[in-house]
Design brief:
432 residues, Uridine Diphospho-n-acetylenolpyruvylglucosamine Reductase, domain 2, three-stranded parallel β-sheet, 9 helices, 19% strand
Length: 432
């Protein structure tokens, strides 16, 4: 199945396998089964998903779970529920609080991962807790709000592949404050929660941020870059600023991009361009490839840095098979192919490695290999010690933002899927 048909960008190649989970038990079972066969990608609404042109070399588990339970001012929502539908239904039930987050595409289970926010509100303002399946202990757990590590577009779930979100519990009833001048001007004086929702939807439509098949500017993954937070003395002259903490200021990435010379509608390589309605959205005009999109993102990143000495970080999290998982998959496939512990030509074929013809070894070669094996057993512990110290000193002074954005489209990127794969501990990716 082609992933381009399941993303709002319309980009991405095929997946090796596909599974759909409509219940919680099916979701847990599908993920566990898929893990035994190779890498797994949890697919939500596909609105914040960028997939490599080559596709995904593993199993896609599509989340379609449903359910919304109301108990007083407490609302528990299944991970597979459409997010905007949740906002609409809670408002209809007389439970405001999410209205500023109207129109955001995707599923409810994705929202706590990146602490989704808009117009001065974030889901962490109303989340009471997140229930997950722990893929290490194979048990379900509930994380209260204060243990989720919520931060600007981040949480403990974003940098960890361990937890599979099952449902999210919200505490609603208090209207969301209207903090943004733009929203206040559109909603009017003393707006009701329903009027705030309508104003947010109108603003988002004007920026191409509400999915509409008739609007080519909605063929995007939403905002591609996060707003940088910089020391107050580094804010460019004339830039809008929002204080986040003493000495630190958030600067709109859209302003930086435009001032660096990338106007709305700017065309990059191939069929990738900036939206004609919103500078932060990178759009597929119908002919783009993932490689085109990533090339445009790097061009913008470099241009902003050259102009303001500020580095923009993309919201996409790099999704790839961790090295440890790669070796587990190889070992499992080797055993399935009847190979020895160290693999065989038959196992190599099973995992797609081309094995060269090997002539029979002579008696002398076999003797030399036996001696080398003994030597390896004696020396290996010392080599590992040396490697450890080399790694320690080699990385002294390096930025903790260690995970590199791909130079090509040979990786799968995800923004706000139901679960995000490992990246840097601080949840930030870098474009090289």
């Amino acid at each position: 199945m082609n992933l381009a048909d399941h993303t709002t960008l319309g980009l991405g190649g095929p997946a090796r396998a596909w599974a759909t989970a409509a219940t919680e038990d099916e979701l847990i079972e599908a993920v566990q089964k898929a893990e035994r066969d190779g890498p797994v990608l949890i697919l939500g609404g596909g609105s914040n998903l960028v997939v490599a042109d080559e596709g995904f070399p593993g199993t896609i588990v599509q989340v379609t779970t449903s359910g919304l339970a109301v108990d007083g001012d407490t609302v528990t929502v299944a991970a597979g529920e459409n997010w905007d539908s949740v906002v609409r239904r809670t408002l209809a039930a007389g439970l405001p609080g999410l209205e500023c987050l109207s129109g955001i595409p995707g599923l409810a289970g994705a929202t706590p991962i990146q602490n989704v926010g808009a117009y001065g509100s974030e889901v962490s303002d109303t989340i009471r807790g997140v229930r997950v399946f722990d893929r290490q202990t194979l048990k379900t757990s509930f994380f209260p709000n204060d243990t989720c590590g919520f931060a600007y577009r981040s949480s403990m779930f974003r940098g960890d592949d361990r937890y599979l979100i099952l449902d999210v519990t919200f505490g609603l009833g208090a209207p969301a404050p209207v903090r943004y001048t733009e929203l206040a001007a559109t909603a009017g004086q003393n707006p009701s929660p329903a009027e705030v929702r309508n104003a947010v939807l109108a603003l988002r439509r004007g920026k191409g941020m509400v999915i509409d098949p008739a609007d080519p500017d909605t063929r995007s993954a939403g905002s591609f870059f996060t707003n940088p937070v910089v020391p107050a003395d580094r804010v460019p002259d004339g830039a809008p600023r929002y204080e986040t903490s003493p000495g630190l200021v958030k600067v709109p990435a859209a302003w930086l991009i435009e001032q660096a010379g990338f106007a709305k509608g700017y065309h990059g390589p191939g069929g990738a361009r900036i939206s004609a309605k919103h500078t932060l959205a990178l759009v597929n005009d119908g002919t783009a490839t993932t490689a085109d999109l990533l090339a445009l993102a790097r061009e913008i990143r470099d241009g902003v840095h050259a102009t303001f000495a500020i580095t923009l970080h993309p919201e996409p999290a790099q999704s790839r098979t961790p090295r440890t998982c790669q070796w587990r998959q190889r070992a499992a496939l080797s055993r399935a192919a009847g190979a020895s512990r160290w693999g065989s030509r038959r196992a190599a074929g099973a995992i797609g490695i081309r094995a060269r013809p090997r002539p029979p070894r002579s008696a002398g070669e076999r003797t030399a290999l036996r001696k080398l094996f003994v030597l390896r057993k004696l020396v290996a512990p010392r080599i590992e010690t040396l490697r450890f110290w080399r790694f320690t000193f080699h990385n002294v002074g390096r930025s903790p933002q260690c995970e590199k954005f791909p130079q090509s489209a040979n990786a799968t990127l995800r923004i706000n899927p139901t679960r995000v794969r490992p990246q840097c501990a601080n949840g930030v990716n870098e474009l090289p």
